[in-house]
Every structure is written in C-alpha cells, then in structure tokens.
Design a protein that fits this description.
The structure is a single chain. By secondary structure, the protein is of the alpha/beta class. 32% of the residues lie in helices and 20% in strands. The protein has 14 helices and 17 strands. The protein has helices at residues 99-110, 115-132, 150-161, 184-195, 213-230, 250-259, 262-265, 284-294, 305-311, 331-338, 361-371, 377-386, 389-394, 431-436; strands at residues 12-13, 16-22, 31-36, 39-45, 59-61, 66-69, 71-77, 134-142, 167-174, 200-205, 233-238, 271-275, 299-303, 341-344, 412-415, 442-446, 449-452. The strands form two sheets. Strands 1, 2, 3, 4, 5, 6, 15, 16 and 17 form a nine-stranded mixed beta sheet that branches. Helix 5 (213-230) crosses helix 6 (250-259) and helix 11 packs across helix 12 (377-386). The two termini are 14 Å apart.
C-alpha cells in the first residue's frame, strides 16, 4: 500500500480510488476516481504519485487494479441454498439427479425449515455474494402451505440486516402449483397476503408445475394481474423442458401482459422470464416472431446455465449418452441477433436443483465462454454485462452502463491486489482477462462504502 494512503477497512467511506484501470479507456493509463455522497464525482488521469487530499485516510491506493461496475444476481434462491452442505439436511442426498427428485428432496427440507437455519444459510449466501462483488440481487423466498411466511420473514430480516452492504430485492415465490391440487387456493391466498408486506419487491411464479396447460395459463393470468394490482415486478420460471411436442407458454405470457396493459398499469416494473429452455428449440423465424410480439414490453430473459446444464438434456437409459444438448438459453445470441434483453443468473447453490457452483456471478460469465462458444474480446465484455449492468436492468435496478462515469452510484468492484508487493505475478488488466480467468482478490464498494476487501 502507498505510504501515504493506508488501506481502508471494510465499511469505510472512500473518497478517492487512486491509480485504477478503467474498462473502455486506454488500458495502459491509470485513473483516479473521486467519490462523493455515494456517487462517482469525477474521473481524472492518475499522476506519478497519489494526489494529496484533505482526508488521506479516505483514499484507497489501488495502482493497476481494474475498476468495473459491480456484479448482480438477477435470480437467486435465498431459502433453498446450501441444503446439501448443511448437517441438518445430511440425510437428504441425491441418488438420481432428476428434477422430480429435486422437488421431492426440497419439499422434505422445507418441512423442516426454521428461522435459525434459514438465517444461517441466507447469511452464507449474501456474505459470499458480496465478497464476490455483488451489490444488488433479487432473492426468491417461497410462500406456500408448508413454509407459510417463514422464508419471507427471514428474507426481510436479511434484507434489512445487509441494507448498507447490498441492495436486496425480495421476490415472493410460488414454487408449488397454485391452480392444481387441494392446497392451491390457500397457496394463492398466502401469496396475496405476502405481497402486502412492506419490503417485498417482486412476485414470482412457476406455471410449468401446474397439471395442465389450461391451469398453467390460469397461473399466468393470475400472476400478471396480481403483480399489477400490488405494483410489483414479475418474475416467471417458464417452459423448463426440452419437449418439442409441448408448446411453450411464452407467447401466452406476452398476450396476457398486453391484455392487462402492463406498460400503462405498471410503468416502472419489469418482467423476467427465467429458464425458458424450451425456447432453445426455436427456429430463427420463431425468435423473430417473439421479438415482434414483445415490442416495447419491459421483458428480459434470464439464462440459468448452471441449473439448466445439470437438469436439461439428459439422455434416456436406452441411449448411448453421446448426445447431450446444452439446454440453456443462448443469451448472447438473444441479445445480438434478436435485440432481446438478457442476462445470466446463478439460480440455486448447493441444493438438489444445482449441487455445483458458488455465489460468484463472474464464474458464470467465465463458464459462458465455453457454453456459448464465445471467446472474442467483445464476447467477454458482453458476458460481464450479463452478470452486471444488464442483470441490474433486468430487475429494475438501473445504475449507468458498462463503463463507469461521473454521476453513477458508486457500486463498483476492483479486481486485483491493492498492495503491489503482494500482487500475483500475472495481474489481469482488462475485462476480457477477468472473464476468462476471474481473479480471487476483489475490493467491493457499495454507495461509496467499502463493503468487502
């Protein structure tokens, strides 16, 4: 660390981030980023030494670190995380790895949920996410006749506890059928009640778990109407299969949004369609038609590759096993070829739906190089946007573009060791290098305050 600029402790307010590299600018140049009132106030060329300030203790000398917009979870389940590593649920082990088994094991786990373990696992997820560079997330919490408001209560507690470190949107989520089965009406009533709670930001639902297409349509109708009535963002888990004989429900969602005049009735709220793996079977003509249908609706697609790759496209017992489709939305193609909005999310961590992975969105961007066969510099930049600025936009948490500029809220992450003498021999200097091989050392700033280092 520079002799006159001591390292800031976590939860310290920063005034200058000195000697950083900025994405979109000359990578051979270093810059000083001045912060004020939680925002980026000015950006100037870095001199041969750190400029003197009235308060040097509020200055962070980061010579050579890459500064970029912070990361975002557009879609992550707060209540179901780390079930496979929590001793309380050690008897609930995977034996098949199927979606049906995941539903069964998770249902058993939910029957045991209590405040203390929900808090414990939720804290793990949020703390690990912040350390990775996440300053904004949409966290799903289930509400149904099994857990009732247990998950929601804890989600709201965690939202408040971490409000100075990360913006957490709470999405009330109906994972179980709400138009099929004996408990469906009570389930709907519980969700309605949950949406009236202060601190709830979004409504999530899962039409594909209903017993028929007619009931899936009823689920969609209810979800759109309910989200508008409560003025919440809408987040649908949709078309999670690869059955070419089974028609997707995406077009029906678009029709329903128009029928309920979403743009007029909920002008500040966004719609996310998650998974949508059935759409990977679309032809170019079908994609172009869907783009025309969406038009001005604030619809974003969120690819969930770690979950999709685990669950989708498994060969049957009678097949040789050589043919394994990727089975996850080609997000980069959606953005470039069809001018659709898209991002990438972690979804689940350490449970029967997604046993592998971690809380770092950047690991998904790196994985995306292979999944989407996207190895160019511009591919890497777009992948970073998909776990950062585009993800924020998808959940209605806007904050500038892919290149930081004065006026933006100071939600940023700095990649690299801020102490040159301890820095790894191979320092990353560009977003491309960071996506190809994410560095472990990160300094995270939320509203101008260092929250992880």
């Amino acid at each position: 660390m520079h002799a006159d600029t001591p390292q800031l402790s976590v939860q310290s307010q920063a005034s200058v981030l000195a000697g950083v590299r900025l994405h979109g600018r000359d990578q051979s140049a270093l810059w000083d980023v001045k912060l004020s009132n939680g925002r980026i106030d000015a950006i100037s060329a870095h001199g041969s030494s750190t400029p003197a300030l009235g308060n040097p203790e509020a200055e962070l000398y980061l010579k050579g670190c890459v500064l970029a917009p912070s990361l975002c979870h557009p879609h992550i389940h707060l209540d179901k995380c780390f079930l496979l590593s929590d001793p309380k649920y050690s008897d609930l082990v995977l034996t098949q790895g199927t979606f049906a088994e995941a539903l069964e094991l998770t249902s058993k786990a939910k029957s045991r949920f209590e405040e203390n373990d929900l808090l414990r696992r939720g804290r793990w997820l949020i703390k690990e996410s912040i350390a990775a560079g996440v300053t904004c997330m949409r966290a799903f919490v289930e509400v149904d006749t099994t857990v009732r408001f247990k998950c929601l209560d804890v989600g709201l507690m965690l939202k408040d506890a971490f409000k100075n470190q990360c913006e957490i949107q709470i999405c009330v989520f109906a994972q179980d059928p709400i138009f099929s089965g004996t408990a469906s009406q009570e389930g709907r009533q519980l969700v309605q009640e949950a949406l009236s709670r202060e601190g709830v930001d979004a409504l999530g639902s899962t039409p594909y778990v209903e017993q028929s297409l007619r009931r899936a349509h009823a689920n969609i109708d209810w979800a759109v109407n309910t989200a508008i009535r409560h003025q919440k963002h809408l987040d649908l888990h949709l078309d999670y299969h690869l059955d070419v004989e089974k028609a997707p429900t995406t077009s029906y969602v678009i029709e329903t949004l128009r029928r309920h005049s979403w743009v007029k009735e909920a002008p500040t709220k966004t719609i996310i369609l998650g998974h949508c793996t059935r759409l990977t079977l679309f032809t170019a003509t079908e994609w172009q038609s869907l783009r025309s249908q969406i038009a001005d609706l604030p619809v974003s697609f969120v690819g969930l590759p770690s979950s999709d790759l685990f669950m989708m496209g498994k060969p049957s017992e009678g097949e040789g096993g050589g043919q394994r489709v990727r089975g996850t939305l080609q997000i980069l193609q959606l953005i470039r070829k069809y001018d659709l909005k898209g991002s990438i999310g972690v979804n689940n961590v350490g449970n029967a739906f997604t046993p592998q992975g971690n809380c770092d969105p950047l690991s998904l961007a790196s994985l995306g190089v292979g999944i989407y066969q996207a190895g160019t510099n511009r591919d890497a930049e777009l992948l970073y946007e998909c776990v950062s600025t585009r993800a924020r936009d998808a959940i209605g948490c806007k904050n500038g573009g892919s290149e930081v500029k004065p006026g933006d809220q100071a939600d940023i992450v700095l990649f690299g060791d801020p102490e040159p003498e301890k820095r790894e021999a191979r320092a990353r200097k560009t977003i491309q290098e960071i996506v190809y091989d994410p560095p472990k050392r990160r300094t995270v700033v939320f509203k101008g305050c260092v929250v992880a280092d």
